[in-house]
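pinging the channel bc i need a second pair of eyes. not urgent but kinda urgent?? the chain im working w is below, pasted from the shared doc
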Amino acid sequence: MKIHTNDITQVTYAAKLFREIDETYKPDLNKISEALVQKWWNAQHFFDTNMASIDRRAIRVLKPGILNHNEGPDFMHAEIEIDGKLHIGDVEIHVRSSEWYTHKHHLNSRYNRVIVHVVLFNDDFNLRTRLQNGKRVPTLELLKWVAVDTGDLYDDTKDTTTDGLCRITGKPLNIEILQRVFESLGRERFLEKTESMRLLRTRLDFEQLLYEGIMEALGYERNSKALRELAQHVPFADLDRKSELEIQAVLFGVAGLLPSQREKTLPPEVADDPSIVALEELWRASEYAELPPRMTEARWSFTARPLNYPTRRIAAMSQLIHHCQGSLMMYFLPTCEKAVTADTPKALRAIEKELGALLMLEPTGYWETHSNFGTGGTQKAGLIGNDRAVDIIINKILPIAYIWAVEAESQKLQEAILRLYSAGQKSKGNKITRKIGEQVFNETQQMRHLKPTAKIEQGIIRLYKNYCADQLCDLCPILEHDAVLPEER
């Protein structure tokens, strides 16, 4: 879809007729290192251990192997089932499948114990990888099975601890310059995250990308991966034209969280609640009930506050899917588009508030008064609170809307999304922002003097992850841009 950016009405019209971009995204693999892919494989950041190679052989990873720091294959002594048969051997990792031949591994007998060639992206026409001894082994393309945003996987590779003294601690600051530094870092983080999320566009349409992203963001730290996994087991397209209760039944059933699926049974007077009975009946009537179980109660954490229980998050997503009437993109994109004509911070904040209202729907039915099946105590609290809504807007909705604008070649909409991001409200903070607050600021010059926005907060996070965590003090952007004032003598 081609959009001429000098005509705003065309942008608005295109959003109202939203459809998928026809062209397939080709990722910039030069930005991804082999070491990063090794970490993804080692941590098994995949939504399913039952995968398939590019020649459609069933792959089940039992043990990823031991990282090899010497010459030869990247992982040794891996245990992998291939078409149901156990294989024990080595695994070689590459960003591109063609690198096997570029690196001449097919001529090196050291690689003859390789049982699977693992790549991020398949750019070759060879369905199987040839060893020096003439045997051929399956090639597994990881991009089809990645469980979370690659931007989050980048973050996972960063150490979140620092040792030693910061060169800035206790020094007087030029707040104006410092603000510009964090705004620049915040923009870099946003664009880096959108680019990394675009990798998922090689296998996901926009609806599924946004659906998985929102599900992940709803889960906080404890349930984010489980909620994204649930969204991958039950694609967005399967929930179209279903009632809110039918959506709940399918999601709760696949999650293994219906009362009938729990280890601890509910008392009869609770289990006989008409809402629970209706969910159980709808689940038994669904096509998913006939499939093998995918998730169980053990996959979920109920250690957070009751308002953040995964049951309430699933109910929230069910309500959101029902309200969006078949398109999450069309539910949010027209509101994002209003930023094209918004020329003041106040107007941009009003748009953010409108996006928040689309997320913070009033709870209905059973979940007005329950945090879990048979557990009350919610006092009709919203299924999605303001802080969670802000996180979803900044980290999921705006990046994905920006990706759509890029693929639609709408420069005006790209710029509008960035303005909306710049004016967005910050969160309540986290351990990283608190760490930087202690490290950079002081009693007379506090972080609040920056008048932090979401963009500045994201810049603070980028500073920590990209510089402080790796102790790259000589490259610190605060020092590089002279945001530290010379001390008086």
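so The beta strands are 50-52, 58-63, 66-67, 75-82, 85-96, 114-121, 128-130, 136-141. and The two ends are 62 Å apart (CA to CA). — does that match what u expected or am i reading it wrong
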